[in-house]
Amino acid sequence: MFLVPGLIGVVASLAAALLLVATQRFHGHLSLDDQAGVQKLHLTPTPRIGGVALLVGAVTGGFWLPVEAQSLWWTLCLAAIPAFASGFAEDVTKRVGVKWRLLATIFAGFLFCELTGYRIASVDIPGADWLLSFPLFSILFTAVAIGGIANAVNIIDGVNGLASGTAIIVLSGFAVVAGQVGDLALLGCILLAISALFGFFLMNFPVGRIFLGDAGAYSAGFVLAVIAVALPARNPDLSPLIGLLALAYPVVETMVSIIRRMSREGTNPGQPDRLHLHSLVYRSRARRLAQQLGVPHMRNPMTSLILWSLSLLSSALMVLSSHSSALVLLGLAGVAAFYLVAYRRVALLGPLFDRRSPEATSGA
User: Fold this and answer.
1) What CA–CA distance (Å, rounded) separates 364 from 353?
2) Cis peptide bond prior to 206, omega within 30° of 0
């Protein structure tokens, strides 16, 4: 039932990515990602409009979805337009500020709430549930949460395959839960989203011939966020917190980044740096692993291989605890603790490896 739209989504997305790479000499003056920026881990100018490939895969595959899934899919695509548009504008102009992109993704979340009627109405926490019982507060909270997740996925988009691979892993967990509760319409949407991402992924990992860019990262994050809201909203037996657990890695990364930047003099929460977990792993663990395997030039994708473990862990815990908010919160605490321990260890190792290997960072 979902095989045909999935295959079409993969092929269309991959074909679009191949075409964008092959024609970059025509659009490169707008689409190429330069190497300026403290957070950059690649040396070769690379197209950063992979969001276009996701769009082509999503739209093309959508026409082949079963009727019960098409309505929901096109609604999600319509709501995603502000997130995609603001990201694409930044990809080609480099002039759209972080604040405006955040507002655009929050507005996309508001559209999702209004078009579908789905919102976070409960989190199984006394006091918070009382506030969420007011529709206006609930809608605003949901919109901000969706915008926050979209931006969190953009934050982890720093090495080949990390953001797209993380999205595929988390969506796969959502697909398992949707299948368990028999929500076939939402399952079809999730599988098509995976397909559109996978077509792009084949051109982004292990060698980054094309990047997600802001349009791709925001769109992927938006889809993750709205699925996280819609799944428990459509299936009340599920914990409303399952999305928070499944998305624990990008959420915790974002919170740690905000706290780190606010606590450092002369920085602000929107200012990029080289202290994300993926940046530190790239300079330490991934470098050592790549050297041990005799492929030092592959430490960029090695970073993703290491960090996917966080999303695999959180998604597996989400599937196992999807009906219990208490277990979900326990799993969230465990993933957060694992992240913080890992961050501390690689933060200590990073400077050591930088001193030992002063060469410029490689990647792409």
Assistant:
1) 20
2) yes
Q: How far apart are CA 274 and CA 69, in angstroms?
A: 41
Which parts of the chain sit beneath pLDDT 50?
38, 355, 357-364
pLDDT reported for residue 287: 87
| Residue 269 phi, psi (nearest 5) | -60, -25
The 10s digit of each residue's pLDDT in 34-75 is 655 545 555 678 999 999 999 999 999 999 999 999 999 999
Distance separating alpha carbons of residues 358 and 19, to the nearest angstrom: 37
For residue 114, what are the CA distances in angstroms to 15, 79, 101, 219, 220? 34, 9, 20, 18, 20
- The sign of the torsion formed by the CA atoms of 147, 152, 158, 160 equals negative
Q: What SS3 state is found at 274?
A: coil
Predicted model pTM: 0.93
3-class SS of residue 133: coil
What single DSSP character describes residue 32?
E
Measured between alpha carbons, how far is 194 from 172 in angstroms, rounded to an integer?
Answer: 8
DSSP string, 208-240: -SS--HHHHHHHHHHHHHHHHHHHHHH-TTS-T
